[in-house]
Design goal:
Strand 14 (349-353) and strand 15 (356-360) form a beta hairpin. Helices cover 36% and strands 16% of the residues. The chain is α/β, with parallel strands linked by helices. It has two domains: 4-69 and 320-428, Aspartate Aminotransferase, domain 1; 71-317, Aspartate Aminotransferase, domain 2. The strands form four sheets. An eight-stranded mixed sheet has the order 4-13-12-11-10-5-9-7, with helices on both faces. A four-stranded mixed sheet has the order 1-2-3-16. A three-stranded antiparallel sheet has the order 14-15-17, covered by helices on one side. It is globular. The two termini are 21 Å apart.
Length: 430
Amino acid sequence: MNTVISEQLFKEAKALFPGGVNSPVRAFKAVEGIPLFIKKGDGCEIWDEDGNKYIDFCCSWGPLILGHNNKPVRDAIVEAVDKGTSFGAPTKAENLLGDLIISNHKYIEKIRFVSSGTEATMSAIRMARGFTGRSKIIKFDGCYHGHADSLLVKAGSGLATLGVTTSAGVPEAFAQETIVLPLNDEEAVKSCLQNYKDEIACIIIEPIPANNGLLIQDPQFLHFLRKICTEQNVLLFFDEVISGFRVGFEGAAGLYDIQPDIITFGKVIGGGLPVGAYAGSKEIMSQISPDGPVYQAGTLSGNPVAMMAGYAALKEVLKEGFFEGQKERTEYFVNAVVDYAKSKGYNFSIYTVGSIFWLAFSENIHIRKASEIDADSMQYFKKLHKALLERGVYVGPSGFEVGFISEAHTKEYLDIAIQAFKESLDIAFN
């Protein structure tokens, strides 16, 4: 596989950007390779600057649920750009996307658009604190909620501990307002709420944790969170930046039939352009300026081009049978690869929900906590990743990240990818 141009571009990039990239995982450090510089994408395929073609299971880390260069989305973008790119004023496009979401998502009443999932989550945390008058929040070890200071924390020692920072530049005082608990542990939650009674503003969770493996939770645990939050007057916050519009239009809230107090969105909502949002009841959302005292603003929030891209994308996913088709394609791919791995006796599984999947070098039926992931297994992923690239299949360059199936992943392409996975697994395990 010729990567001469990507190697040269990476050399140039390292003189311009920290680590040569504008988002850390892109540097390929986890797989010890040279990052590929992507030139174009169409359908489920991408091409790098050297002309190598790949079947893409990264899908821009999830937003491209329709595939690359989808015609309705592209046409909507072109039409919007023809009228201008940004106004810093209200546009009809915001109304269109907002109404489309609220009309088809029974768990929210009002929404505020921002420009990223991180911004959405950061703003929603501020809103939760403003609404409750409390300062501390609970998050779970293994869940990622963007790079806001108070959320860049990990668990300390003990079952229920105040967080410690995972990034330089984050004051310990910030982290001390975040309590980190193990996932899928009801007793830890009960104990924490007792120890910090009347201090907790919200419990934030990825209802489908998908940034540190795919840690599918016991639905009972999520229902427990709803019940105890109601009892303790604590807001339940679902971070659905990944799962929103991926596992169904109503995301995990709809999948598990749970009413969160706050939901954040990203990825799919922008149709491939930078968009995030936070949403909730009218009462809670009334805290946000200019209606209420919690300030949040954004010069490019509700950008008309991004709004129309998201509007076009979500109209497509609302079509009858869309999510059923996504699930069918994903199961076809996953079952074929896993059946082959089992026939060869490989210690390998693929965990999946909706059109999200995770390659796990484990035979455990469930992995519900980050601590249950064998870090040493990532050596197998490095070999697998390299072998897949050589066979024209692109997955994200980290074994802890999930993959995605798009509408453009037809059976024809999946069959090619399945064969590539079989050959690559043979290399990884031998």
